[in-house]
Amino acid sequence: MMKIDILSLFPEMFEGFLHTSIIKRAIEKGVVEIHVHDFREFAHDRHKSVDDTPYGGGQGMVLMCQPLLDCLKTVVDKDALVILMSPQGQTFSQKMAVDLTNEKHLIIICGHYEGFDERIRDYVDMEISIGDYVLTGGELSSMVITDAVTRLLHGAIREASHEDDSFSDGLLEYPQYTKPAEYDGAKVPEVLLSGHHENIRKWRLKQSLKRTYLRRPDLLRDRAFTKEEAKLMEEIQAELEK
Ligand code: 4GX
Questions:
Q1: pTM of this prediction?
Q2: Parallel, antiparallel, or unpaired: how do β-strands 105-109 and 182-183 relate?
Q3: 120 lines ligand 1 (CB under 6 A)
Q4: Transmembrane residues, as ranges (predicted)?
Q5: Which segments of 21-119 does DSSP mark as H helices, in order?
Q6: DSSP for residue 203
Q7: Ligand 1 atom closest to residue 131's alpha carbon, by position in its atom list
Q8: Is residue 135 lining ligand 1, measured as CB closer than 6 Å?
Q9: Which option is the CATH number for 2-150: 3.40.50.2300, 3.40.50.970, 3.40.1280.10, 3.30.110.40?
Q10: pLDDT in tens, 21-38
Q11: What atom of ligand 1 comes closest to residue 132's alpha carbon?
């Protein structure tokens, strides 16, 4: 059982997320325990302030140490990995999601405003960004991390579904089809209806390679191809030159 504590000023943003689909089921099955904490409750003044103007002047507000770190103290333990969501962190990836499944306890800090008091970083083990764009706060980012990690935990989904994930073997997924065999004149590739498992496997591998080559060549840059993959790549390149 993994435990995830999320520290946020907008706990209501998590309502739909925690009560829907696979995350809801994973919580019910005891695969993961997720708690959202409103660190505004730890503010001491009448106005429940959590931010203040920056020393040295300038625009915007800075999240102050006290309410957030007092909240952190109530959830931290020796096993906890404290993660800060920020555009300045390492970019999140499937590999990071897999690595995080080895942790017992994640604590994810979501900030709003222009930034954090730098001294908050002394209590943080890892800073993660979900991509090079600017959000209004870290809540959506923390849900991205929580979602990507939770679905990988034992019992969250059928184990075999992970093996087909895009990125799990460094390739994009092959095209999939379901009934009917023809829709508005568009046919399902013949090989998929043939029942010939070896031909289907080879077709899917070739489609994965082709799609990755065309859409995400960066993923192939330092990939060690098997003999079979190298041969399929030659076929793909020859077909594309025609
Ligand atoms: N991936 N944001 C955090 C506040 C902030 C500003 C500066 C630290 C330093 C984001 C992202 C993201 C917006 C969340 C700014 N925190 N989080 N917030 N991209 O854009 O994770």
A1: 0.94
A2: unpaired
A3: no
A4: none
A5: 21-28, 65-75, 94-100
A6: H
A7: 19
A8: yes
A9: 3.40.1280.10
A10: 999 999 999 999 999 999
A11: 19
